[in-house]
TrEMBL record:
Entry superkingdom: Bacteria
Domain Ribosomal RNA small subunit methyltransferase E methyltransferase: 71-241
GO molecular function annotations of the record: rRNA (uridine-N3-)-methyltransferase activity
CDD domains, per database record: RsmE-like
EC number: 2.1.1.193
Protein name per UniProt: Ribosomal RNA small subunit methyltransferase E
């Protein structure tokens, strides 16, 4: 069944779709007809079953709330040092499907790309559209938030809001570190806020690691193989999902 994210909260059971992009997708692309049913997700993260009552005026009626919740039991923010090309778009799409609650980008020391404020705004807008599509496809209850930081100091200023800050560090993997990720995942508690930091193509500089460690971060390897910047966040989220959602203990 098709799913759509609707801004705001439902005030009554009757709803008129206002967003032009949503209208286009629902009634022009998907050609929804009267009496067809869809799932709507509002800002409260609750899924609601709705039925089209008038496709010409974009009206629907909410039939019932649905109990389904597919969100990770912990709140995971993925922070990537600005990568080259369209890799951040790839990361946004795939980490959304894997359950990230927020997707951040920051100017790492070894980031090759340099985006000014105007380019950051355009990139953020593009990423948000990708996130909506990926959230609808994966039946998420909430839309991940996208944030691109213009400076390292702005990025660092956000650290205090997290319960744990993890850093995927290439040098840890090269040194053969294999246990820290498993140990850390075993200590995660439902509802905790986790920041997981990944470097760009060249990795994170030693100076960055020293700066991050001042905030009580945990550096760890992601297995014996060196992963690309767009692969590492997928590995991390998959590991978190396995540890917290697929373990029946």
């Amino acid at each position: 069944m098709q799913q759509y994210f609707i801004k705001g909260l439902p005030l009554t059971t009757r709803l008129v779709i206002q967003d032009k992009e949503t209208i286009k997708h629902m009634f022009s692309v998907m050609r929804l007809a009267n009496d067809e049913q869809v799932v709507l997700v509002f800002d409260d993260g609750v899924k609601r079953l709705a039925q089209v009552t008038n496709r010409e005026t974009y009206e629907l009626e909410i039939l019932e709330e649905l109990a389904e919740n597919v969100e990770l039991p912990v709140d995971v923010t993925i922070a990537s040092g600005f990568p080259k090309g369209d890799k951040l778009e790839w990361i946004a799409q795939k980490t959304t499907e894997l359950g990230a609650s927020s997707i951040w980008g920051f100017p790492a020391d070894w980031s090759v790309v340099k985006w000014d404020t105007k380019k950051l705004a355009k990139k953020k807008e593009k990423l948000e559209k990708i996130v909506i599509g990926a959230s609808e496809q994966s039946k998420r209850n909430r839309l991940p938030q996208v944030q691109l930081f213009a400076s390292k100091s702005d990025f660092l200023a956000q650290f205090s809001q997290f319960d744990k800050i993890l850093i995927a560090y290439e040098e840890s993997a090269k040194a053969g570190e294999k246990s820290q990720l498993a140990k850390t995942l075993s200590t995660l508690k439902k509802g905790e806020k986790i920041l997981f930091i990944f470097g760009p193509e060249g990795g994170l500089s030693p100076e960055e690691i020293k700066t991050f460690q001042q905030y009580g971060t945990i550096t760890l390897g992601l297995g014996p193989r060196i992963l690309r910047t767009e692969t590492a966040p997928l590995y991390a989220l998959s590991a978190i999902s396995y540890a917290l959602e697929l373990d029946d203990k």
